[in-house]
Design a protein that fits this description.
Strand content: over 45%
Number of helices: 1
Distance between the termini: 14 Å
Low-confidence stretches: 1-35, 88-104, 495-502
Radius of gyration: 22 Å
Structural class: mainly beta
Mean pLDDT: 88
Largest sheet: 6 strands, mixed
Strand order of the largest sheet: 6-5-16-12-18-19
Length: about 500
């Protein structure tokens, strides 16, 4: 074998290594022969970022780490969580950060266990830091970390949860607010060795909001920085769309949306702008649902609004369509839209397809006994989605098949402290949402993970709701279930590379 052939093989090997670090779920090759189809291989390395959980002294936060068992992995590897340097907001009104909250030497909340078994840990108080996670080898494919916080009283009281996410460079958050009584932070976490430079754009009902301090925010290496949205502008907007872009580097981003009287939760980033969106898993006992949408393009969007309920798709009375003006945040109050049934909102174009982003603010309870959570538009499950930190009671798994009937396999892992895995298969009819009777490990002790794997049929979307009622207040948090990024497509050579020699 000559030098040219060796170089080509080295290049192909390097490409496979890079591709295996990607965070996308590969499409199946259409019309390609098996010999030419890309091979689906387990990812070799995964990074996750968990924001600092709370500024409350009475916050208790639990963490759950889980890696599903994935065929094709070797026996090596490890997964670790390391505390980021957390910055607390100053009092200058600049929107930038002040003194350090805690350093990277903070003790990690848990040590991940081998694939198939969840690991748990906890922190408490206002000094709990953000965490930067890395996993490689057998720990990497589908690695999922859940952060769940209980706050007994005060702003944002109730249950708050977020799935830790990979770093990226572009994020959309429709559903944030700078209204009186709201305290919303966008948390920025930088996992890399060099500083990241971030711009934050705000859009209200009348369009872009000017800010002199929202551009060029520096996030130090291996550090996290929360930015209070109300320090970026004097305007008080009930419905706000936040656009986070990264000039250099990359970050993890999430919005912590907290209300003085209505609890609060984490608002995860919406799926990328698209003409059609799915927002899955509205609780059947929701007392108020508010849709917030935004189109970043130059054209207005006209959307059909449909609810995929337990028995089929219906149109919410009085909210059959939604007109979204270009560059302006738009809302629709849907009230108690689910009327006692599981439901998911489906947005499709009325005419020409115009990309939009969207999220739901969902309220359970009323008066002094109400709690709020958020459901962003999300990507489909893909090959597999993973949900950590489930309990024998208080877990609701919602699955929807908006376009075609689908068969789905759901597997419950072993418990974190004992129990054997269990599996069930469900059929989700086209245009419906089902709160499925998800499996629970036999002999369960501790918490467990759920993996969702479509077997046949159309695309499936899902979400998991955790509920915990304290003193009559229905605390809850909702996490959507996009692909867990466990597999990537690696091209296979179907010819002798030596023919390319010159």
């Amino acid at each position: 074998m000559n030098r040219t052939t060796l170089s080509l093989l080295a290049c192909a090997t390097a490409l496979a290594g890079v591709t295996a670090y990607a965070t996308v779920d590969p499409p199946r090759a259409s019309g390609a022969s098996p010999a030419k189809a890309a091979a689906e291989l387990p990812v070799q390395r995964t990074g996750l970022l968990c924001p600092a959980p709370s500024f409350s002294d009475i916050a208790d936060t639990s963490y759950t780490s889980f890696t599903p068992v994935t065929k094709g992995t070797d026996g090596g590897g490890k997964a670790t969580l390391q505390a980021a340097t957390e910055e607390t907001p100053d009092d200058s009104g600049s929107g930038k950060s002040g003194k350090s909250k805690s350093g990277p030497d903070s003790e990690p909340p848990l040590k991940p266990k081998d694939p198939g078994t969840p690991a748990t840990g906890d922190t408490s108080g206002a000094d709990a830091p953000a965490f930067i996670g890395t996993a490689d080898g057998k720990y990497a494919p589908g690695w999922t970390v859940q952060e769940t916080t209980e706050i007994a009283a005060g702003t944002g009281s109730g249950l708050q949860g977020v799935t830790c996410t990979p770093a990226d460079t572009d994020f959309w958050f429709p559903g944030a607010s700078t209204a009186a009584g709201r305290t919303d932070y966008v948390h920025l976490t930088n996992p890399d060795d060099s500083a990241a430079v971030v711009d934050i754009k705000l859009y209200g009902k009348d369009g872009a909001i000017k800010s002199e301090v929202a551009d060029g925010i520096t996030v130090k290496p291996h550090a996290s920085e929360p930015v209070l949205l109300s320090t970026l502008t004097d305007e008080r907007e009930t419905d706000l769309t936040v656009h986070v872009t990264v000039r250099s580097g990359r970050v993890g981003a999430a919005v912590q949306a907290q209300d003085d009287s209505g609890g609060g939760d984490w608002l995860a980033a919406s799926a990328d702008p698209a003409g059609s969106l799915v927002l899955p898993g509205i609780p059947k006992d929701a007392t108020d649902v508010r849709l917030v949408a935004f189109t970043p393009g130059d054209d207005d969007a006209d959307l059909k609004v449909r609810l995929a309920a337990q028995n089929g798709t219906v149109t919410p009375a009085g909210n059959e369509t939604l007109h979204v003006k270009s560059g302006m945040t738009t809302f629709a109050d849907l009230g108690a839209v689910t009327r006692g049934q599981a439901g998911s909102l489906i947005l499709t174009p009325s005419d020409d397809s115009v990309p939009v982003v969207a999220a739901l603010r969902v309220v359970r309870g009323s008066g002094a006994k109400k709690e709020t959570a958020y459901i962003p538009a999300t990507a489909p499950v893909g090959r597999r989605a993973t949900s950590a930190d489930n309990s024998g009671k208080g877990t609701t798994l919602a699955l929807t098949a908006p376009t075609a009937t689908a068969t789905v396999k759901v597997t419950a892992s072993a418990g974190s402290e004992g129990g054997s895995p269990a599996t069930k298969t469900f059929t989700i009819k086209a245009g419906t949402t089902q709160n499925v009777d998800a499996p629970v490990p036999s002999g369960l002790r501790g918490t467990y993970a759920l993996t969702v794997e479509p077997v046949s049929g159309g695309p499936v979307y899902g979400s998991r709701t955790l509920s915990a009622t304290e003193e009559g207040v229905p605390g809850f948090t909702v996490q959507t279930l996009p692909s867990d990024r466990g597999l990537v497509a690696v091209p296979q050579a179907d010819q002798d590379l030596s023919i390319l020699q010159k």
